Amino acid sequence: MQDKFALPYTEKELVDIYRSIDQKFPVITVTQRSLSEHIVKQGYLTDHFGDKVFVPREEAYKAVAYYCQECAGNVLKWWWVEVHRALRCGDMVVNSVHDELDLELTTRGAKARLREYADLTRKLDIFDLPIVAEVKGPARSWGECS
Description:
This protein is mainly α. The chain has helices at residues 2-5, 11-24, 26-42, 63-86, 110-119, and strands at residues 44-46, 52-54, 92-97, 100-104.
């Protein structure tokens, strides 16, 4: 891994980092092994939304990554639907990139509505942690949004 990503650590330092993580958070390794075994037996996981996450058995070791990506995608889709239901005053979602929604808002009261749209994520109560959306803006033009 050190060679592949040109990390500024020696191989020993990387091993020490991973051992430290395993010692502090043993549940991570247990979860990874458990999900991998589940994939080998069943071929899929069921996420918090009730969707089946199919994982090729030869990639069972990637089960946690598949699960996280599926959940992240479903959170964004869920939020997009909620935002569309809440839109008013001519506001609109114009783009979705990775884990963000980009909106165009009419000027009057834009800041309050933007916060309201972001806070819709707090309605999603299926995880042990809240999903919190950060607000950037509003800006006067797309050029100011970077």
